[in-house]
Design brief:
With 391 residues, the protein is an alpha/beta fold. It is built from 14 helices and 17 strands. The chain has an eight-stranded mixed barrel with strand order 1-3-2-6-7-5-4-8. Strands 13-14-17-15-16 form a five-stranded mixed sheet, with helices on both faces. The longest helix has 13 residues.
Amino acid sequence: MKIHARGHGHVRATHTKTLEFTGEREITPRATCVVGVAAAFDPEGLALLRGPVAVRLAAGPHVATGTAVVNPHHEVTDRLVLRRSDHASPDTFAFRSTLVASDLGPDFVAALEDPATEVTLTLTETGPRRPLVLVHRRGLPDPKGRPGLLWRTADASVDLDASRVPDEARAALADGGVIAASVSGPLEGVSQAAGAWLAGAAAQGARFEVPGDATGTVPALLAAGLPVAPAVHLGRTDRRALAAPPHAELVRTAPAPVVFRAPAAALGALAEVLAGSAEVRRIAVPDGQPDLGHGATWLPLSEAVAGVAAPGAPGAEEEGVFVLAPPEHAAWNVDLRPLVPLLVEQGVTARTLSTVLRPFGISRRDLYDALGDAPASPSEGARNKERGRKQ
């Protein structure tokens, strides 16, 4: 993605924290971060950029390079701002920039002061990009903003009501593409094959976004590799509420995942509530990657408290959506056993099922007990037959 602009006599390039291209043709000497005026922006091209990018600024023979991370919440306007800090206001196109205005040398700045100079900013994704699954309900207006653009230009589409997931969706997932997943009704009613595919996508590191879900709980459950129901929703909470009834009792005994929004620092209260339990509870925490959609990482609760929730840890005071796995002894109260043979018949391997169901506290032994005499998946059947020949 290339953005073209011109130099200007009032370019000073002394700002130590930002670098800016503006669509305005005139600036004052106070615009110390501006390095190019009369810029022409491609809103669609900029909106499609995600993740880490390489930055290249050129003016005549002068070139400066750096790196930055695209702000997932940016809005394309008549200015493009790169910031050294993590500040993520809508007018910030990218943050964590290693190139800002004051990094340019005197000769470079002199070239930028000439209105005849053509200035070019090149932004190139450096990847690898994680797949993004956009889930939207049919019959509703198309998503707006960047999610809407990604929806319309997706690499593949999936009908979550269908009994089979198309091969192009599997390929897009493997290539880190964008998949537009549509559903006619609540996500609780998706087909078995679609549910298994969603869980498998999460296991492959996919991020999820559900346009219109202001709470973020549904994409958080999907990113954790879990169905959206059954689940206990606590809503927005904090340390004090997590430690008090009835929340404390729910997190101790609920036989389904518990999902809530809270500052990461509040996980310490959760650990205190569960301190008397002999079981190791696991929790899905935001993966911390600045990208569109929700990504999750499963950790033992003790590790989450020592890491993302520790005092002074980056983001400890920021809100996130967390998913607490149910206690292991209650896992089968959700009774997923009847689904296991059906999923195997659809070609889902026992290994994939083991990964997907582990957050429920279901061990591999529990899984094989549930399978009983059910036929093994094709790949496992072939391995078993091969073992028989060798014996």
